[in-house]
Amino acid sequence: MRNRLRWPALVMGAALLLAACGNSKGSSSSSTTTTGATGSKGTVGGTVQVAAVWSGTEQASFQKVLDAFTAKTGIKTSYTSTSDDIATVLGSRIQGGAPPDVAMLPQPGLLKDLATQKALQPIEDIAGKLVDQHYSKDWRSLGTVDGTLYGVWFKAANKSTVWYRPQAFTDAGVKVPTTYDEWVKAAGTLSDAGTTPFSIGGADGWTLTDWFENVYLRSAGPDMYDKLASHAIPWTDPSVKKALTTLGQIFGKPQWLAGGVDGSLANDFPKSVTTVFADPPKAAMVFEGDFVGGVITKETTTKLGTGADFFPFPPIGSSGKAVVGGGDVAVLLKPTDQGRELIKFLATPEAAAAWAKDGGFTSPNKDLDLKTYPDDLTRRSAGELTSASSFRFDLSDLQPAAFGGTSGQGMWKLLQDFLRSPANVDGIASQLEAAAAAAYKK
Question: Mind listing the pLDDT tens digit for each residue in 396-409?
């Protein structure tokens, strides 16, 4: 969840990237640690500087990756946490001529901005073969700008998971659905049995964009998803209206939503999770990413795997396995030998394993042994992500921030309006197109 909430700010920050002139918030909030470890040393030596948004538990886990790198190569590491101000912090350091060797970017738009501004080093000769070996073509494409590979995707999030209470399904005689039509039918059965099917965190508009994106990817297909993401087709396209109509099969039944429409629009994301898994529960299912498991563990007494489980967002028609997600990509900002070695290491299953065994992490590296993950739910989620026939990055994160990532406007607000009036497909589509067109002109 934390990753998803920070990305819109990064998009806005990237626009100021090279013009940034020392942000006191970014500088004061960063923390730096330098470590080394004894291991088989190569001939490079020295220290590699790394910057990422991670702090706290995430920073500690990533440090284990860096320690594994040091043990393997003999190269020491110096890590800086930029907090959520990574675009501004990197912009200041680039302008000052002192960028880190490697940075972990949480959004492909920021990667594209940096590459366009010639702030990144191409890595085809460094890690291209490793990317082809260990990643699907979709991940290579996400790390590529204008035909040149610039990034290795290291951390990922599966945002195509539906979390549910197995007991609620058992009590209603419902089986885990394998298609969208079965899902809608199961919701009706749950409702008839006296259990509210869905909890929605509509107060956070990004949850509704995730609903739309998952339906659109499955109903329109990956090629149309790419066209919509780049505004190559308008939001009034029939494929958008079809997806809204399909989504309306759920949004259009307020009796299926915990608290009805008003309650759904008042609930934030954490509340939408606890509505399903707190005692007493008030709904059977909540759709969101693999990070739902963390909220369940932290905010409720429900046990993962017994009281809480998930199934993949169901296919629509012949869509097959498809995943909408997010992630963090490693890029090279300085042509140093130390940075090159770290980029190569981060593309290997060995690097992913150093964090995966800690938990709270999913790797897009398809050759990471799923047994490395500490629990069955994480293994299943990671397996869904790496085996998906289509993976696409969160569409709203690929938009100008004014349209895709700002509270009270753009996709966030208009999909909230759609939840209020799901029959107004043509009107919402027209408003989405108007908002998108205005944002792309800026």
Answer: 989 888 899 889 99
